[in-house]
């Protein structure tokens, strides 16, 4: 089984980002993905791209969610990718 790479583009104090991370953890598939959080404030290009769009969640390099994460869809996606890379 392959671990899926999940990136959350966020910034400090973002309540939607906190909700998105909580939804991903509540999905019950944490053992199948590695979570990387990137603070858009540290990169001018990312800031320009996402400043009013966070959180943005990328799964294996493909944008999968913006603003909110549906735990059921997240789990289905992670499970599928971890079994069939």
Please characterize this protein's 3D structure.
The protein has 85 residues and is an alpha+beta fold. The chain contains 3 helices and 4 strands, in the order βαβαββα. It has helices at residues 15-26, 44-50, 71-83, and strands at 4-10, 33-39, 56-59, 62-66. It has a 4-stranded mixed sheet. Strand 3 (56-59) and strand 4 (62-66) form a beta hairpin. The relative contact order is 0.28. The model has no long low-confidence stretch (mean pLDDT 95).
Layout of helices and strands:
Layout: E1 4-10, H1 15-26, E2 33-39, H2 44-50, E3 56-59, E4 62-66, H3 71-83
Parallel strand pairs: 1-2
Antiparallel strand pairs: 1-3, 3-4
Distance between the termini: 9 Å
Please state the structural category: alpha+beta
Low-confidence stretches: none
Sheet with the most strands, sense and barrel status: 4 strands, mixed
Tally of alpha and pi helices: 3
Provide a quick synopsis of the model:
This protein is an alpha+beta fold and 85 residues long.
Question: What keywords describe this structure?
Answer:
85 residues, alpha+beta, four-stranded mixed beta sheet, 4 strands, globular
């Amino acid at each position: 089984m392959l671990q899926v790479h999940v990136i959350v583009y966020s910034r400090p104090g973002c309540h939607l980002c906190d909700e998105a991370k909580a939804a991903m953890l509540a999905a019950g598939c944490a053992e199948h993905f590695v979570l990387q959080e990137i603070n858009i404030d540290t990169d001018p290009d990312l800031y320009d791209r996402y400043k009013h769009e966070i959180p943005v969640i990328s799964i294996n390099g493909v944008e999968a969610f913006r603003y909110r994460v549906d735990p059921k869809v997240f789990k289905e996606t992670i499970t599928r990718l971890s079994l069939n890379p």
